[in-house]
Design brief:
The protein is mainly α. It is built from 16 helices and six strands. It folds into two domains: 253 residues; 181 residues, no CATH class. The relative contact order is 0.13.
Length: 434
């Protein structure tokens, strides 16, 4: 058996909102600073220009393949995870009315939607699909994603509002957070169209139109998308906390089932990587997002979630997470950002290349070392160590191959953690999250 435990105290929620809200504000300010400096990039030379091009750009929410786009994608993936937890909370708490019992499956659809949004945030598929149509309302040309995807946006928004009204409304704060999240997300394509109209009308640097455009970019990318995602994430946590009445959620499942699910998800990820790479080659050019990078980034993010939800507690240990568990979870998050920001594809950082070499060496060696320390020579340790080694080997190799290696490595690591945390129902060993 494997047991996953989640606790949703008010202190945890406050810390989450403080940390993620702070990151949202930092990235919004970073976008503003980067856009301001980018207008005058030719005026800078040497190390200052390299700093803007390779470091400050990571805080720019309006571009792809940077840390900020990875962060936005992982917030959406966290909403998908939170939706599954909310579904489990419903099932564990028991649902009196039969109508509510089948409505609880809406959480799984909710999670699927946000998993798709997480993928699209990093892959730029909606921009590519928007280029398929070659006629807009003003003449020839691509229709654009906001118009091409309008029916899907309306359907998803109505589903979320209907699900919130008929099922989530019993927990009013969660319901109103969903309403606010939908309102923010629906306004996103509207603001983007206003931005495009400002550029089409002519917005030279220093003009009021450029100022308005840049301000709308910050509002759209930071205020709407990031805080909209945070609204949905908070809604899932508040709902789960209410359904479990503050006692926390414990999910137990057969080890073979969990391992089979992990292998299936890993195989689907590798197959999806092949398919989406093919699709990108056959779709019209849109934005520059790279679908291949989402799979290892998502896999390593889920590894961190599994680590935090299955922390081993052996007799004599103090409550809380061990340093090894926290270190490995943090390393998994850093590795996730490493792939999500397309950092592995950079063969040089030019003036900062020595930092790249140091960073990649410590990341690879540290990840393997933490995997070995976490395994501790216990049964199933080979799987975790093999996954850690495979993920570490994916460092600094350009192309599809390293992304596939890291995706497979993440899957092996998750399976290794599950094996190490499985226990007999008659054993005194316990697992959990404090």
């Amino acid at each position: 058996m494997i047991t996953f435990r989640f606790h949703f105290s008010s202190g945890f929620l406050r810390k989450l909102l403080l940390v993620l809200g702070g990151v949202n504000i930092v990235l919004s300010l970073g976008t503003m600073v980067f856009n301001r400096l980018w207008e005058h990039i030719t005026e800078y030379r040497g190390i200052v220009q390299s700093f803007i091009n390779f470091f400050l750009v990571q805080f720019n929410l309006s571009t792809e393949n940077v840390v900020s786009s990875w962060y936005s994608s992982m917030v959406l993936l966290a909403v998908a995870v939170g939706s599954v937890i909310a579904f489990a909370a419903d099932r564990n708490a028991g649902i009196d009315a039969k109508s509510h019992r089948w409505l609880s499956f809406g959480w799984l659809l909710f999670g699927a939607v946000f998993a798709g949004l997480s993928f699209d945030e990093m892959a730029s598929f909606h921009e590519r699909l928007g280029m398929l149509s070659q006629l807009n309302f003003w003449g020839q040309g691509a229709l654009g994603w906001a118009y091409a995807m309008a029916p899907a946006i309306v359907i998803v928004a109505l589903f979320m509002l209907a699900f919130g009204w008929f099922h989530v409304r019993r927990v009013r704060p969660a319901f109103w957070l969903i309403v606010l999240g939908v309102a923010l997300f629906v306004s996103d394509p509207v603001l983007e169209q206003v931005e495009m109209l400002l550029l089409q009308a002519g917005a030279p640097p220093g003009s009021w139109a450029r100022f308005a455009h840049d301000a709308l970019v910050i509002i759209e990318e930071g205020g709407i998308e990031l805080f909209g995602g945070l609204c949905f994430l908070t809604a899932t946590i508040v709902y789960a906390a209410n359904r479990t009445k503050g006692s926390g959620l414990k999910i137990s499942m057969e080890s073979t089932t969990a391992i089979l699910a992990t292998r299936t998800l890993t195989a689907c990820s590798l197959a999806g990587m092949v398919f989406t790479s093919w699709a990108v080659r056959h779709l019209p050019p849109g934005d520059i997002g790279i679908p291949d990078n989402w799979y290892p980034a998502a896999g390593l993010f889920l590894l961190a979630v599994v680590l935090m939800a299955t922390e081993r507690k052996l007799s004599g240990e103090q409550a809380g997470f061990s340093r090894t568990t926290l270190g490995l979870a943090l390393a998994a998050i850093v590795f996730s950002a490493y792939f999500g920001a397309d950092t592995y594809a950079y063969l040089t950082w030019f003036r900062f290349d020595i930092l790249r070499q140091i960073f990649q060496t410590f990341l690879a060696a540290g990840f393997v070392g933490l995997c070995v320390a976490y395994a501790g020579g216990n049964r199933g340790s080979w799987c975790l160590i093999a996954g850690g080694a495979l993920t570490a080997l994916s460092v600094n190799v350009a192309g599809l191959f390293p992304a596939a290696m890291a995706t497979l490595g993440a899957g092996l690591c998750i399976e290794g953690v599950l094996r190490l945390n499985s226990f007999s129902p008659h054993s005194t060993r316990t697992t959990g999250l404090s």
